[in-house]
Each structure stands twice: as C-alpha cells, then as structure tokens.
Design brief:
heterodimer, A: about 280 residues, mainly alpha, MetI-like fold, two-stranded antiparallel ribbon, about 75% helix, B: about 260 residues
C-alpha cells in the first residue's frame, strides 16, 4: 500500500498544501509570485465584488440542489415502489447517464435550448410564430444543466434508505390513524434524511465549484466561483488570489460535509428510537 | 412497501416516465442528429453516416483520441495496480486511522478545479514540462481512489483465514496472492479498472490544466470543449455518440462483473 500512499501524498496532499501556502503570498508585479506573507487575498475574497459572485454561486447551486433533491427523491421513491425485480434495472438506467461524458451531457442542452434548437422547433410545430425564446445563456439554463448532470446521484443516494425502509413502520402509522401525508412527513421522510443529505451535499459541492456549465450554458455571463478560480490561474495570472478562492471553496465543502454528518447522526438516532419503540 | 391504490400506482409510474424522459431525451436527440444528413436540428433530411466519415478524416480529433487512449490506458494500469494493493493493505490490518481513510476518500470528493490548479502550481513550481505524462500522473490520483474503493467493497466479505491457511501450508506470500487472494478479488479489480478507464476517458478539467501549452497533448474532452466553445459543427454529434457508446459499454461490463459497483 506504500506506493499508493506515496502517490497520493506527492500528487494530492503536497500540491494542495502548496495552494494553501500560495494563498498567503502576494501577486508579483509581472504576474509571478512575490514571496511576502499577507492576508490580502483572503480579504479580497470578502470584497463586495467577489462576495457577490460567491452569493450568486450559492444561489445557483442552492436552486439546482433543491430541484435535484425534489425530483430525485420522487424518482427514487417511485423506483423503490416498483416490483422488486425491476428495481435494479431502473436504478441502473437512472445512473447510467451520469457515467457518460459531462461535456457531452452539457452540450446536449445547447442543442435543446439554443434559438434554433429543438425546443424552438417544437414550439413552431405547435403553431408558435413569434420570436424564438432565449433560453440558452440564462441562469435557468445553467440550473437546468446542473440538475440534469447531477440528478442520477441524488436518485442513487435517496434510493438506498428508501429501499431499506421497514414497511411495517408506515403500516403502523396508518393503523394508528395518521393520513398518508402525515405518515410520509413524520415517518418516511425523517428516516430517509441521510440519503437526502448525501445527495444534496453532492449536488451543492459539485455545482458551486463548477466552471464548465456556467461557461457553456451561461455563455460566460454567469460567473461562479469555479470560473473565478479558472480566470485567476489562466487569464488574470493572479495565482495567490486564485489559491485563496480555491481554499474558500474547500472551506465551503468542509462546512457542508459537516452539516451532512450532523444530519446523518441525528437521523441515525431517530432510526434507533423508532426501532426501540417498535421492539418495545 | 405497503399496498397502494391504483391512483397512487399510476402517479408513481408517471413520475418514473417523466424522469427517464428528462434523462434520456437530450442524449437521444444527440444520437439522432449524428445520423442526420443535414446535421442541423432544424430538419431531418435523411439518414447518413457522413458525419462519422468526416470524423475519420479529421486529424485533430484522431490525434486527440489517440492521446486520450494513451492517458486512459497508462493511468488505468498504474491505478489498478496501486489501488488494488492499497485496498488489500487497508483491509488486511482492519484497524486504520481516520486520517488514512480521509486520504483515500479525498480524491473522490475534492472539487476537480481545486486538484487541477493544485497540480498546475505544483508542476510549474518544479519546472516540469507538462504534457501527456503530467495528465497521467494526475489521473492516477483519482483513479486509484476509485479502484481502491471498488476492491475494498469486495474484500469486506473476504475470509482472511484462508490466507493464513495458505501460508501455514507453506505457500509464499506471492503464491498466496496469486492463487488465493487474486482469484477472489479479480472481478472487482477488473470492474475497478473499467471504471477508472471510463473516468479517465471523460475527464476534462484536470487534463485541461495539466496538459501544458500547445496542441500536442490535447485530449478528446479538451478537443470537444474547444469544438463546443468555438464553432459547433455537426461532427460533434457523431463524436459524442461514439464517446458515450464507449463509456456506456465499459460501465455496463463493469456492472455485470461486479454487481453494485455503480452504487458506490
């Protein structure tokens, strides 16, 4: 196992530590790195201009996460309710698109949404004669792309706890007079929180650091943190600031992961309680 | 699950139909367009393979495809070897620290852009000339984590006493590995390798940052990105169809070999 650990240390831990160190230096006059210690880059992260981009990213990623979780949960619920022998097949086909090329899946949305794209053609076919709607290069297009790309993972994450759910718990709730809605809200939903949390974290973390989708479907009009990092390294040549932004991204990721662990722990507690009640 | 009324069952089937339509219609449109004579989404002008033929004559795409194949094969080979050994090492000792666990898990969750800029900074600090070799070094990082996780899942149910028995009977460590451990984990190792291969073929961001200047080390995803950004031609549809077919075949094989791997 030593060679693998050496590889991970040399090509992941050391480079990441280097980025962390880089964030504390100053940008050189000619774009290089000036090795004087400073907190400036982190201050710049909270500058209103960049804080706006952070909030923007959080809003876009948050909206995509919400939609993906609602749709993904409904899909996972429907799969878990299907006949047993069909479930693995449905699940496999729900996840399959996730493993095909990300760029291609994003490009497919350009084909659908552009002014002379498939949706415009369909509208015309139904007798629409006005101006083609502008759908591409909007925030909605970016959100659609993110939901499309990450939905399979939410389905997978929500399916796991839903398929393990003890049907007797729901039956007991119904026998005790709870409506279907109450049973869902008070019994099924709380027990499947870990799946929802895992799916939500995944979509949020990957969306907020994304730069391909805003670049292709947002047409560069919607800057997200990922685009900002990209620019600092490849066009603006301010590596120390880019490094500070990347560290902010990691900090957000760690925060979200901690929130997920907390939600999962609480759900585990509830599940144990429910089991205790059922046994006692 | 509990008994359902016909109305509920209809709703559930409706949800499933909608979700699968959402997931597959965009892909189906691309595939259909790749066979469209005119190449445009505006009208179907007849079945044609001309976009596939024009791909075969596009030297930039062919050299990008060759680069991708080199990167994917070499990084998969290294990652499969290292990842399998790592999985065996970790599972054999059973008591491992949280730090080790985090180190193995990190490449799978760290945002691509962060690993990409970290490696770019690292390679340029070392004054390393970047090219296919640096992409390979980078791809092994996440590939070995995925191989390791697939093989570890298989080893969870492995009975280590048969390894002891083999040693007691006088087999060397190497013989034990070859005759006892390997046959048991082989399906997982192959499944992990196929997964790594697919990930590497499709990976764009890290390759983009670690490929260095110049077109010599352009990979297929980098080529596709450039084609999407600067002038879409109908050739992309044909290329997209081929790339998707390759990933989906590799993944389906991987799934058949090792049930449940996609669930990880």
């Amino acid at each position: 196992m030593a060679p693998a650990l050496v590889w991970l240390t040399a090509l992941m831990v050391v480079p990441c530590a280097l980025v962390l160190a880089l964030a504390f230096f100053r940008r050189g006059i000619y774009g290089g790195i000036d090795y004087t210690f400073t907190f400036e880059n982190f201050g710049l992260v909270f500058d209103p201009l960049y804080a706006g981009i952070f909030l923007n990213s959080a809003r876009i990623a948050g909206t995509a996460t919400l939609i993906a979780v609602v749709v993904g949960y409904a899909a996972a619920y429907a799969i878990a309710a299907a006949p047993r022998r069909w479930q693995p097949i449905f699940l496999f086909f729900a996840v399959l698109p996730f493993w095909s090329n990300y760029l291609i899946r994003t490009y497919a949305w350009i084909v659908l949404l552009n002014r002379e794209g498939l949706i415009t053609q369909l509208l015309r076919w139904f007798g629409y004669t006005g101006e083609p709607p502008s759908m591409l290069y909007t925030e909605g297009a970016v959100i659609a792309g993110l939901v499309y790309n990450y939905l399979p993972f939410v389905i997978l994450a929500c399916y796991a706890p839903l398929s393990r759910l003890n049907p007797e718990l729901a039956e007991a709730s119904r026998d005790l007079g709870a409506s279907a809605a109450t049973t869902f809200r008070r019994v099924i939903l709380p027990l499947t929180v870990p799946g929802i949390a895992a799916g939500a974290v995944f979509v949020f973390v990957l969306s907020i650091g994304n730069f391909v989708t805003p670049a292709l479907l947002g047409g560069g009009r919607f800057q997200m943190i990922g685009n900002l990092v990209y620019d600092q390294f490849l066009t603006a040549n301010d590596w120390p600031f880019g490094a500070a932004l990347a560290m902010a991204l990691i900090a957000i990721m760690l925060l979200v992961l901690m929130a997920q662990a907390l939600a999962a722990n609480r759900a585990a507690g509830r599940a144990a309680e429910a089991k205790g009640d059922a046994d006692g | 699950m509990a008994e359902r009324t016909p109305a509920t069952r209809r709703t559930l089937w409706f949800v499933l139909t909608l979700v699968f339509a959402f997931l597959y219609i965009p892909i189906a449109v691309l595939v259909a367009l790749s066979f469209n004579e005119g190449g445009l989404p505006t009208a179907w002008s007849g079945f044609s393979l001309k976009w596939y033929a024009s791909l075969a004559g596009n030297s930039a795409i062919l050299s990008a495809a060759l680069n991708t194949l080199i990167v994917a094969l070499v990084s998969t080979a290294i990652a499969t070897l290292l990842g399998t050994l790592l999985a065996i090492g970790v599972e054999m000792r059973r008591h491992y620290g949280k730090g080790l666990e985090a180190l193995i898990f990190a490449p799978m969750i760290i945002p691509d852009i962060v690993l990409a800029i970290a490696l770019l900074s690292f390679f340029s600090m070392l004054n390393l000339t970047m090219g296919l070799h640096t992409i390979i070094l980078a791809h092994v990082v996440f590939n070995l984590a995925f191989v390791c996780s697939v093989v570890r899942a298989r080893l969870k149910s492995f009975d280590w006493s048969i390894v002891e028995a083999s040693a007691d009977l006088g087999a060397s460590a190497l013989t034990t590995f070859r005759r006892v451990t390997l046959p048991v984990i082989a399906p997982a190792v192959i499944a992990g390798a196929l997964l790594a291969f697919t990930l590497s073929v499709d990976e764009f961001i890290i390759a983009f940052f670690t490929a260095g200047a110049g077109r010599a080390s352009t990979t297929l995803p980098m080529q596709i990105y450039a084609m999407i950004r600067f002038g879409i031609t109908p050739e992309i549809n044909a290329l997209a169809t081929i790339v998707m077919a390759v990933s989906i075949t590799a993944l389906t094989l991987s799934q058949r070999l090792n049930r449940g791997i996609i669930g990880q």
